[in-house]
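Predict structure. Chain length: 884.
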Amino acid sequence: MKEKNTGTDKTYNPKTSEEKWYAEWVSSGAFHADHLRQGEAYSIVIPPPNVTGSLHMGHALNVTLQDVLIRYARMNGRNTIWVVGTDHAGIATQNVVERELKKEGIARQQLGREAFEERVWKWKEQSGGTILHQLKRLGAACDWERERFTMDEGLSRAVKEAFVRLYEKGLIYKGRYIINWCPRCHTALSDLEVSFEENKGSLWHIRYPEEAGGEGIVVATTRPETMLGDTAVAVNPKDERYAGMIGKTLRLPLMNRLIPVVGDPMVDREFGTGAVKITPAHDANDFEVAMRHGLPSVRVIDDSGIMTLDAGSWAGQDRFACRESVVAKLAEDGLLVREEPYVNNIGRCYRCQTIVEPAESMQWFVKTKPLAEPAIEAVRSGQTRIIPAQWEKTYFEWMENIRDWCISRQIWWGHRIPAYHCSACDKTIVDAEKPSKCPYCGQQDPKQEEDVLDTWFSSGLWPFSTLGWPDKTAELERYYPTTVLVTGFDILFFWVARMMMMGLECTGKVPFRDVVLHALVRDAKGEKMSKTRGNVIDPLEVIDKFGTDAFRFTLVILAAQGRDIRMSDDRVEGYRNFMNKLFQAGRFVMMHADETTARELPKNLTVVDRWIFSRLQRVIDEIRKGIEEYRFNDAGHAFYHFVWHEFCDWYLEMIKPSLEPEVAAQDRERQRAVLLRAYETIMALGHPFIPFITEELWHTLPGDHGLLYDTRYPSSDAAVIDADVEKDMEYLMDVVRAVRNIRSELNVPPSRKVEIRLKGQSDRLSFLKEHEEILRRLPRAEQVVYVNSDYIPKGDATAVVNGIEVCVPLAGLIDFDQEAKRLRKEIDKSNAELARVTGQLRNDKFIANAPEDIVETLRNRQAALEEKLEKLGKNLELVSGYLS
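Prediction complete.
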């Protein structure tokens, strides 16, 4: 254990504390899981960040929420494990290393596959662990002794095993199909790896003449360059406009090739002219039509986005240059009927942003329908919950309409597909180990498939492969299924759905009980962070500036379910102030508590002590409920409000006289014991949110506690809750607030003590009389006077609290002339602002176009200004009564 901090530091130094305590947690083995340890299992697997990555706001939020859960579970006696590791990120990592090679004037093809893979492994060892070191800055309580990598030996074996099992069950096949192809990365992409964006393009209407010399049919297309590969024109068989055209032959413009007119229900009669060109090699729907009608396929765009020899005169052109050339030639030949503006969605590669090309290709696929059905049922039956629940509908819609998953990638970095081709008999052998010869014909040394698996294939095995699957390990038995997965909603389909399918298929069990989907972290204006906007906030810079705990607590407080987080320095600075408040409270405790302070609470507590312990029980329940229901913001708010506004602002101020040297020793020691117990409980309550400062302050307290991380989390005691005491104390505090508000609103100097006059029924006043010392001291009152019911508060500032009239005589307290001037000036200023705000809210155009949150902010501001003006008017009327 580290040397005890004496608590003499005047300010909290986050950097020193964070380095010290993280090293202590790791070296003590606090984070290391032991399957033999007692307690119900609680397991989390971290969404593995890309090995190429560095910490961004999404990681910071995700890791913070997981850390809150794992620390909370550990402190509640659960046997916890938090598996950490990184993803090999096939395309992303290969791109990084290729860029490095380019700087050296080398292409990967020059190196060859084996040498290139060695270069990537070297890069991974030197630079690939950056993000894991950054996670430690956040305080992540991961089991670093179990760090995994999606291409380490164990996970690679799991990938091969899963592939072979799926193949042998007929759930993996190789086939020709339309896939998404990236001409820049030179690889296939799954549907989820394509990001779509709205594009303002054109819709071209082109005439396809009839072979017999008739006018033929006008088709509409957004991609005229692909017409060079057309093999048919399709119309809807129910479309009366083309009833006599089905079966006729058209002449393909520019290529002079004869193509048929086919009838197919795929055609949308409302799109364009109701007739569409069929290009089987470059459109998924067209491919399906071609399969149904036995049409040939002509590929006119190659893997690099260049027109092929089958494109005739346009061979060798870039696909987009070809588009312009084709349109020009159609116009020249009189076959371009018209061009009109058209908005459509174009797909881009999620890695390099190149426009994706649909292309017919031989690829490996997973049959997903048989895998999706049990994954759908698992959520419907409640085996796995998705939180917030509204995402279940989205999950079901996607899973019920799922397409087969293209899992092969034409890159070198990744899990090479464990399939081997025999050139002699043309058979394919799928095996986890490379066969020395073909089992069908005996040919030696079959050649392994060149393609690698989609990164998400190995990621889909992450929850169980990291625990030892396919072996039946003790860890797999103890910690699987995992308890909860915390991740962003944006990878619900990329990753969560695939883990559900693979987990159920490979283990027969769901991979996790709960899936918690958090929102995005945006900038202060609600804009998505991006380098192009220049609004990216670096978490490490925020940590360096404000400390990890302030940053973490900001994320927790703002992490409302289903609502994006708006991050700004101002918000983090506010919670740094909270850390300082907590630290200063700790210094106050250490001024009064020492090794002689009693560890047992006295039996007869004062009303103030009974109140703070009653409130503490309720807050314990609120925080527990918030964390257990994944309402992290509710839990954080409960902790913040209690510590700052009840413990620090009220309780500590109330008990200060009880700790003075002149107080009887027995009473002073009783107060010290209560203070110490309350503060110890606060430290334990806050630890999952703000681990560094609580661990630091924990070790300034008397006694040898051991690590706070290993301490039992507080549980409430219903017997300590006293609703009557809470009601009485709230009443007392309301009176103090009323006097403070009067002082503030009328600008009474802090140095001037006031007189408080209370008017009301005696039974309501009795509790106030018993605690008159607090009533005098906290709002800086000279005396408290209990006036008769016939007292008329003429010239007094007044407030009514629970039937008690609180009066503060103003004579002699303030300069009434100056105060009247100040109030009039404030009224004029507030009226001007109210006019501006009201004007904006009456502007229909502004209301229609402004973001909803901006409008809501203005409405709230309007209401606040109206309330403020009402108070200012009353105060001016009151002050004016003193003017001659």
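Summary: The CA atoms of residues 182 and 356 lie 5 Å apart.
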